[in-house]
Task: structure prediction
Amino acid sequence: MAVMSELESSTTASSKFTVAAILPVLNEASRLGDYLADLYHAHRFDEVIVVDGGSTDASVEIVCRFMSSGQSPVPCLIQTLRGRARQMRAGADAAEADILVFLHADTTLPFEAVPRIREAIYRGCVWGRFDLKLSGRHFLFRIIERMINWRSALSGIATGDQAMFVRRDVYRLLGGFSLMPLMEDIELSRRLKEIGKPARLRTPVVTSSRRWENHGILRTVVLMWTLRFSYWLGVSPQRLARWYDRKS
Result:
């Protein structure tokens, strides 16, 4: 009973933190409606901020329908130039919640993700991320996701597919995402590591494996690891982005 009382007290205290979902999108109309509904009805974020990078499909119209549907809280729509770092930075600048969660439209959060995030921050972590599971059934995806989770655990580096979250005051103290064409999540992780070790939430997010399936599993793995190793060696993100565009 004492343990239950402590857990209930911790949950009540952590619930005082407000949480914002920041969602950069570009031509995500095929999944955006269901995704927004999930953020509202399954996860109950305090803020939902969608940052469109110039979609040419119905993405903006879908968000506008949510804005006029009586949802609470009303989603915020921001339109910027294309670029994930630029989009996430714009969303974070507009947020008022205590905790910022950066999501991709093809990443599905686990059950009770928001309470788990609140609890991690309440216990003293200033940032963190989830373990990752890939949606594909091929056995190689089980190896890839384990490698990604081990790499993050050992390096303390989080990537965008892992639903990175951070205290808003800490994010702003560090100046937020750098306006880079690639590797913005790794660059921010490096600065956050100087403040504290990331929380590792082991219940995984599920990320679409379409990138690996469309371009070849092994080819994509080699490309991604080559890009990260080159960045570690000092190759500029601009040069890496040009290379990525040619290869992908």
